[in-house]
Write a structure and sequence with these properties.
Length: 466
Amino acid sequence: MSEGSDDGRRAPPALDQFGMPIKGGAAPQRRRVRRSGSGSGTDGSGGSGRGGAADEPDTREQEATQQKVVFGVFAAMLVGITVLQKIGYGPDGAIIPVILPIALVALAVGVLFARPVFRPERAILYLAVVVTSALSTVLFTRTFSISSIGLYFLLYLPFLVAFDTTQETYRRCLMLFSNLMLGFAVIVWIQHAIQFTIGWQYWPDLDELVPSAYLVPEFLYIQPIQFGMKYMKPSGITFLEVSFISQFITLALIIELLFLHRMMRAVFLGATLFATFAGTGLALLLVALPIVFTRMNIRTFVTVLATAFIALFVALQLQWFDMVANRMGEFQKQGTSGSSRFVEPLDRVRRALLEPSAIFSGVGPGQIERGGNTFWWPIVKAVVEYGLIQGLLLYAFLLFSMFDRTPSRPFAIILILWYSFEGTLLTPLNPIALVMMSSMFILRDTPAPARRARSGAAAAATPATA
């Protein structure tokens, strides 16, 4: 080896004329080797590498904090939409459910501390809805409700907020929802145990425990399983009525089948769905099953199918279908639940569109028929009160927001179907549920997996870069 070598090895010491090593003879070369090593770092690459390594933990910590904030936003909205579902505040006739301010505050905190993503397409569509609805109201309607149109614009404002997120964070949020609904499913069975032993009158009753000024009105909190029966449908204590807890249990069941694959929990949630004796949750499940089945593996599909046959057999033995069969004939009877949910909304849209002006204007915000048992779908209320163009713009805004880089398109489809046929335009829990379970999550772009190299050397290098 030459004395000037910079490969880091120790050179042999210099010798004097008697063959003895000269003291300090190798020192200059050792210094030269050290200078060579340090010099390689002064070109900027070494320093930047150390800086990048130091910055990387901070970046990871910041990213983890942002994802925790997104999870916290979801958790706050989840508590508001379930535990506090019956609670509201405001003047008589205009009580606002607390889920709306909770959602607005939670999303505002998320904007401040997480990583919000601005989507100009959402903003443009939202402004189109607001401007056209406001203009048609001011120019073409004589009577309208300021509070109704104000609530309308405020209630759909959260669809503009979205956060950069990961599949892991989205899965954590859905798991929290399913776990909470598992707890409410237990409450349903406890309510049954109470009414079958000492009577449903001993259920905790929020209508009696909370002043009426702080309760959301116009919902049937306690209703019999069948007219004239002494047994009631359990509503989970905190839900507005049994239809809502059955729908939320169905959503949790769908989450288990689509994402979490915890079959024992899915079976328990399915059994609880039957125990609510509510048709809306079961209808949602029947609509969602074709979508769910396309995402299942063979093992899960066989398990679900076998469980469904067992549930069908048990339901027949318990005469469950006899107790709910009379609901099937309601479609032909005006004023019944089945007719008011599916027949009368379609007939109201048909009658509204007979007027040529219905293309661009409606009867006015808050002016659709109220009272009775009529259940107006969101699109029906939007078209009748604001006009056909405004109703179509609203759905264009909702659909774009729901499918805008969503973590799960199948689940977004199910949520849209649920909102469209079992939700209402100005009931906050329906649009807020769409926000917290789909539209507020913008799935970040992940790099495409590297193609498998053909050569042996490239194939060996691929795992190292993964």
